[in-house]
Amino acid sequence: MCSTISAPALRTATSSARRLAALLCWAPLLAIPGLVQAQAQGCDLTARHGAGPFDYRYEHQMLPIVELRHFTPKVEALLAGESTSRPAPDIDYTLNKFPNHHRALISLIKLGQKMKTHHVDGMRYSIECFFDRAVYFRADDTIVRVLYSQYLGGAGRQADAVRQLELAAKRAGDSGFSHFNIGMGFFDLKEYEPALQQAHEAMRLGFTRPELMDRLKSVGKWQDPPANAAESAASAASAPASAASQ
Question: Which of 61, 100, 199, 234 sits 20 to 30 Å CA-CA off 116?
Fold first, then answer.
């Protein structure tokens, strides 16, 4: 079954939700031989290489240049590179400038799967280290933690994957988008109770997309939220419409 993650944190809540939802509609991640329990080696969380680093969500001055010269569509699709014949050096460059570049992190996961390795040739760091650098750089970026969880889950590291989602949930605040994404991550790990909790929280905050609820129903794990929570969700969902009509 395909996971769908809508992300308000790419640039704006509306356009980014559509773009990342399409990117993250994937089959279950395959475990890479030798990856289970692998730890990042030589991972410098604070190393800088030239200008930056910049926050992918908010600091866009350098983003058009990096995406025009390095993280191009053919690099993102792992078809070829721009600076060399391979995409790895360009993904490396992109993540050096924007450690929390969501789409580049997705391509990094896919490249590791393709090459069947946790440290792709031509990149400074292991995949795990790139994620560690991203969460160290911006600990409040819940999308990075959801992606990290997917990577760890695909590597068979269930406890570590769950931990990233738990940390994301603590930082999701009043973002219904984020709680929905985190809930989908929990569902993919077959952690149905926290998935249900995140679904209820997203609903309480007025985020009413049905996919997570439908998936929980499909495995017999859905429960309606308490009546007071349901009333709060209905009020939150109706508030924008009421404001628009005034």
Answer: 100
Question: Taking a C-beta distance cutoff of 8 angstroms, is the pair 106, 23 a contact?
Answer: yes
- The predicted pLDDT at position 81 comes to 96
Q: Which two tokens stand for residue 144?
A: 């990075």
Residues in the chain: 246
**Tens digit of pLDDT for each residue in 143-200?**
999 999 999 999 999 999 999 999 999 999 999 999 999 999 999 999 999 999 999 9
In whole angstroms, what is the distance from residue 144 CA to residue 131 CA? 7
Q: Containing H/E element for 215?
A: helix 211-218
Are the CB atoms for 108 and 85 separated by under 8 Å? no
Higher pLDDT, 31 or 74: 74
Q: Rounded to whole angstroms, how far apart are CA atoms 204 and 225?
A: 9
Answer yes or no: are the C-beta atoms of 200 and 229 closer than 8 Å.
yes
Distance CA(159)–CA(165), nearest Å, equals: 10
Distances (CA, A) of 43 to 9, 39, 86, 169: 26, 10, 23, 26
Q: Which residues contact 227 (CB under 8 A, 6 or more apart)?
A: none
Is 229's pLDDT higher than 70? no
Burial class of residue 166 (count of CB atoms within 10 Å of its CB; 0-12, 13-18, 19+)? middle
CA pair distance 197, 180, nearest whole angstrom: 10
Query: Of the candidates 164, 156, 143, 130, which has an alpha carbon nearest to the alpha carbon of residue 42?
Result: 130
Angle between helix 158-171 and 176-188 (nearest 10): 170
